[in-house]
Specification:
The complex is a heterotrimer of chains A (about 260), B (about 260) and C (about 260). With about 260 residues, chain A is of the alpha/beta class. Chain A has helices spanning about 45-50, 80, 100-110, 115-130, 145-155, 175-190, 205-210, 235-245, 250-255, and strands at about 5-15, 20-30, 35-40, 60-65, 70, 85-90, 165, 195-200, 210-215, 220-225. Chain C is elongated. Classes of the chains: A alpha/beta (about 260), B mainly alpha (about 260), C mainly alpha (about 260).
């Protein structure tokens, strides 16, 4: 008997200003698995994440997350499914009018059902896990980029969500910190058995974290397969992108487009 | 002690205002220096004239129309009570040409063009484009600021003149529509009672307002700090400073000119 | 060119519809009281305390100018200043007090709200709020809406008094008008006070809705915030002017010109 996929996109299309960012995407992510999304800039990776979170609506197709159809729902009705999702935004999206502690506690407070002490304990545990114990009362303006990212991760994982979305979790970080972050995310996922979908431009590091990788190119999924063998994918465009080579079909197409 | 904190706050506020006024003075000095001898980039000047004028005509015209209409509405009760239809034009016209016209148009201009200009300059500063210019041995003040200051001053004068006419037209429309005063009565009322000086005073004011708006707008644009948040704060500060300056200048000019 | 005009009209209509939806959502939010409590106090402080000085200074100066102009005009015609004060306060209460305060607040508060919400939008904080199950309108706009209603009314009262007070000082100083004659409240009728309240509350409602709307529409980064702030200033100012016109015209119509 197969468990229903946590994420299921069926023939999803999205266009911005006459330009088809997504042209008929179908994607399934099984419960408890980790999927990585890669692709050239502006290929629609972040858009897919936003669709999964219900922050944007597709122009066609269906987006089913945790058994709920996201398309056509009003904001108010998405609250229930969003409580089961944790999200890390590309630019951290920390609330600059709240302290670190209040930022991480925010999802728990909005959910309700926990006492103040329980929330404080959970927040403290999360901050310790990301290595920011003692920074509870700082304001976001006082944090470095790496620290903000870690607060973002703490906030995304504080509610032990069933689905966690990471938009560029290691962008702009040095290789050592990148590895530390992925170790952290990995430990977290093993503990909560959550489903993870992550977008990253650092393909090598991402490949060490996720089970499978999907390659998004010009609005379509060109390839999906195990992360371990992505460098030897059958599609030449995928291979060129992953290996970071300058010569190849990728470059030609870009030249034509300009 | 509440007293202590309050005094400190007032002091801090005063320092900040002084700092900003000082900054604007310094920038003004730099702008003036760039004018004698004129080192103005022609293309930038024309580009800004076009942009600022073109963009703001619709909103200014609409505002002016309503301004004139409002003045007539305010005069309405008087007119009805005393049957002084011939004075409606005088009352509305005088207020429009000397006060309401220049002030409202300047405020709208500050919002439409001044704020936009601050946002543009602030974005350029935040994205280090000004530093980029300096690295190319181009003086940002002469290249960017001066054309904008000139363009804004010229445009505001032109728009005030245009706006005055539209406001008078708006007054005539409302007089006809709501007070049943016919066109010719209003026209004669304007023509007989309004002096050229009334119109010119409004224009002189608009020159001063234009300078104030332009300097405030440019200063806060280039003095911005922080990212996107800083840009918003810069625009906020610019329009507030412009509004205060407009009111202050209006007072001094009206007082000084008398008659 | 017709096509361009057409598309901009369609765009404007669509924006108007969206704006109307924001207003309805805000009102629904007020009834729901889904907003945060502490936020309300913080917003009242942000809108009220920080604008007092600004309103006092600007309305003080414009009050002086208007009194000056009025006396000037009278000195040309009749030389009889006995009615200046009473008519001045009547106009202040029924129109200039709330409207000028409204214009100043449209600039200051409108820009502030749009800048804050706009920078939250471009740094994805709005999306983050949504992911935590918060409705941005309830959390961000409703507290500002309520705070603005209260504060605009209060500030209009302060502004009106300052205007009247400053006007009297000018009349006395420049034209020797006796203060006891000038400060004459006998002509202010209940209908003027009702107009005052309707106008102040309307402006207080319009400014945060327009500014919040512009803030939520911000896109991109710094330029987006700049654009949002600019649009908010123009939009709120224009809304104040149009509301003033509509309310004044309606009042004139309903009372048959007896104001």
């Amino acid at each position: 008997m197969s468990v229903a996929p946590v994420i299921k996109l069926t023939d999803v299309g999205k266009r911005y200003e006459r330009h088809d960012v997504l042209g008929g995407i179908s994607l399934e992510v099984a419960a408890g698995s980790r999927l990585g999304l890669i692709g050239p800039a502006a290929s629609g990776k972040s858009v897919i994440l936003k669709l999964v979170a219900g922050l944007e609506q597709p122009d066609r197709g269906s987006v089913e997350v945790l058994g709920t159809e996201m398309v056509g729902k009003r904001e108010v009705d998405l609250g229930a499914v969003r409580r089961r999702i944790g999200m890390l935004f590309q630019n951290y999206a920390l609330f600059d009018f709240l302290t670190v502690e209040r930022n991480v506690a925010f999802p728990l407070e909005r959910r309700g059902g926990m006492t103040t002490d329980e929330i404080a304990a959970k927040v403290a545990e999360r901050l310790r896990a990301v290595g920011l114990a003692g920074s509870e009362h700082k304001l976001t303006a006082e944090l470095s980029g790496g620290m903000k990212k870690r607060v973002g991760i703490a906030r995304a994982t504080v509610a032990d969500a069933e689905l966690v979305i990471y938009d560029e979790p290691t962008a702009g970080l040095d290789p050592v910190t990148t590895q530390k972050i992925y170790d952290l995310l990995s430990a977290d996922q093993i503990r909560t058995k959550a489903t993870v979908i992550a977008v990253s431009s650092d393909v090598i590091a991402l490949a060490g974290f996720v089970d499978e990788i999907a390659f998004l190119y010009q609005g379509k999924i060109l390839y999906r397969g195990p992360a371990a063998t992505i460098a030897d994918a059958p599609d030449p465009i995928v291979r060129q992108f992953v290996r970071g080579e300058l010569e190849g079909p990728l470059e030609d197409v870009r030249r034509d487009a300009s | 002690m509440i007293g202590d904190k309050w005094v400190a706050a007032v002091g801090a506020g005063g320092m900040k205002i002084a700092q900003e006024v000082g900054g604007i003075m310094i920038l003004s000095g730099q702008v003036l220096r760039a004018l004698f001898p004129p080192r103005i980039d022609r293309r930038e000047l024309v580009k800004n004239l076009y942009k600022m004028g073109n963009r703001s005509v619709p909103i200014i015209v609409l505002t002016a129309f309503f301004a004139g209409a409002l003045m007539v509405l305010q005069a309405g009760p008087f007119v009805k009570k005393f049957g002084a239809t011939s004075l409606a034009g005088y009352g509305a016209g005088y207020a429009v040409l000397r006060e309401i016209g220049p002030i409202l148009i300047a405020l709208m201009f500050s919002g439409r063009v001044g704020a936009n200009n601050t946002a543009e300059l602030a974005t350029m500063t935040v994205t280090e484009q000004l530093d980029g210019l300096r690295a190319l041995a181009i003086d940002p003040v002469a290249y960017l600021v001066v054309p904008r200051v000139l363009a804004m001053m010229v445009m505001l004068v032109a728009l005030t003149a245009l706006g005055d006419l539209v406001a008078l037209a708006g007054a005539m429309v409302v007089a006809r529509g709501m007070l049943d005063i016919d066109w010719m009565t209003m026209y004669h009322s304007f023509a007989d009672t309004l002096k050229p000086f009334d119109f010119l005073l409004g224009i002189y004011k608009s020159i001063a307002f234009g300078a104030a708006i332009a300097m405030s707008s440019c200063y806060f644009g280039v003095a911005v700090r922080g990212g996107a948040v800083g840009v918003g704060k810069a625009v906020n500060a610019a329009v507030v400073a412009a509004a205060v300056s407009i009111m202050l200048l209006d007072f001094f000019l009206t007082y000084l000119v008398g008659g | 060119m017709i096509a361009r005009l057409g598309t901009s009209v369609v765009g404007a209509l669509r924006s108007a519809r969206d704006l109307w939806l924001v207003l309805l959502s805000t009102l629904a939010g007020v009834i729901r009281r889904g907003g945060a409590q502490g936020e309300l106090v913080r917003q009242m402080h942000a809108i009220g305390n920080k604008s007092v000085l600004f309103v006092v200074v600007t309305l003080g100066f414009i009050g002086m100018v208007m009194a000056y102009e009025a006396c000037n005009q009278l000195s040309r015609i009749t030389g009889d200043y006995s009615a200046v004060g009473s008519q001045f306060i009547r106009l202040i209460v029924s129109d200039f007090g709330p409207t000028l305060t409204g214009l100043m607040l449209a600039t200051r508060v409108g820009a502030g709200i749009a800048a804050e919400i706009g920078s939250m939008k471009v740094t994805e904080q709005i999306d983050a709020l949504r992911m935590s199950g918060v409705l941005p309108i309830d959390y961000l706009i409703v507290p500002r809406f309520i705070a603005s209603l209260i504060m605009t009314l209060l500030l209009s009262v302060i502004g009106a008094l300052v205007m009247f007070g400053a006007g009297g000082l000018t009349a006395e100083h420049s034209f020797g008008v006796n203060p006891s004659i000038f400060y004459d409240f006998t002509y202010v009728r209940p209908r003027h006070m009702i107009l005052f309240m309707i106008k102040a509350l309307s402006y207080g409602a319009a400014i945060p809705v327009v500014a919040g709307f512009c803030g939520l529409r911000a896109r991109g980064s710094s330029e987006g915030v700049g654009w949002a702030t600019t649009a908010a200033v123009i939009g709120s100012s224009f809304a104040v002017i149009v509301l003033d016109f509509v309310i004044s015209a309606a009042a004139l119509f309903l009372t048959g010109g007896d104001l």
